Q: What sequence folds into this?
């Protein structure tokens, strides 16, 4: 019998996100907040699924780049909630027009912005909490002799023997950069650091580990640093993680 490949982590996560937003939409339809209780159940379901699933996808699209530059939980939540409020407000306005029959106009489109902002904060907070507590898969035992061997066992066969460049934390996922391309795996950053403790490399930031031989140049400007890697990737260096790089003579 042919072996069935498991869905990629990003695909599993996308499916879980859609399921999460759908569940929230159903709950909102049953509760009928913001005056929607006066509509029929079918109308409420249609309205809230449009708003929650559509708005959730907008939030995820904004959250993806934001979490790379704002790993702090609350700063990221605030930035994403503020950024997604305008487009989600417009979506809600069109949902009001399509489902409820409200006349389109700037006043009607912008009127619910505060309620939209509050809902955005609540649902994105819930999503971040869900993902931050999701279970992760432990790595299998690694062959002896490779200081990064335990961590490599987490990678697919295509990249298991590739040269490690960097590891980037994204919630409870890790984006592993190798000379054979990137791969998204399910793991905690703390576990990855423990498995890479004997490997030559540096933790440059709360969400980055970089292989020592991948660094091409280190710059320190105005209290902030960055490492340019040989592959062209630029990685942040926090003040609290600068000492090992300085001791190694990078600046």
A:
């Amino acid at each position: 019998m042919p072996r069935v490949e498991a869905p990629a982590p990003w695909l599993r996560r996308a499916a879980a996100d859609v399921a999460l937003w759908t569940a929230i939409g159903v709950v909102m339809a049953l509760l009928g907040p913001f005056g929607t209780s006066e509509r029929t159940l079918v109308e409420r379901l249609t309205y809230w699924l449009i708003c929650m699933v559509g708005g959730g996808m907008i939030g995820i699209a904004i959250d993806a780049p934001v979490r790379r530059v704002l790993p702090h939980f609350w700063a990221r939540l605030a930035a994403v909630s503020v950024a997604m409020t305008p487009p989600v407000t417009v979506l809600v306005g069109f949902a009001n027009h399509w489902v409820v029959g409200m006349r389109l106009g700037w006043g009607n489109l912008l009127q619910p912005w505060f309620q939209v902002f509050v809902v955005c904060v609540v649902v994105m907070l819930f999503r971040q909490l869900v993902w931050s507590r999701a279970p992760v898969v432990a790595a299998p035992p690694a062959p002896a002799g490779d200081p990064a061997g335990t961590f490599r066992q987490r990678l697919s066969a295509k990249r298991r023997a590739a040269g490690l460049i960097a590891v980037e934390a994204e919630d409870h996922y890790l984006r592993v950069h190798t000379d054979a391309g990137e791969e998204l795996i399910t793991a905690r950053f703390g576990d990855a650091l423990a498995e890479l403790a004997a490997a030559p490399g540096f933790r440059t930031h709360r969400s980055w580990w970089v292989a020592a031989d991948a660094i091409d140049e280190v710059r320190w400007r105005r209290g902030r640093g960055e490492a340019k890697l040989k592959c062209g990737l630029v990685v942040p260096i926090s003040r609290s993680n600068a000492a090992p790089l300085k001791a190694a003579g990078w600046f």
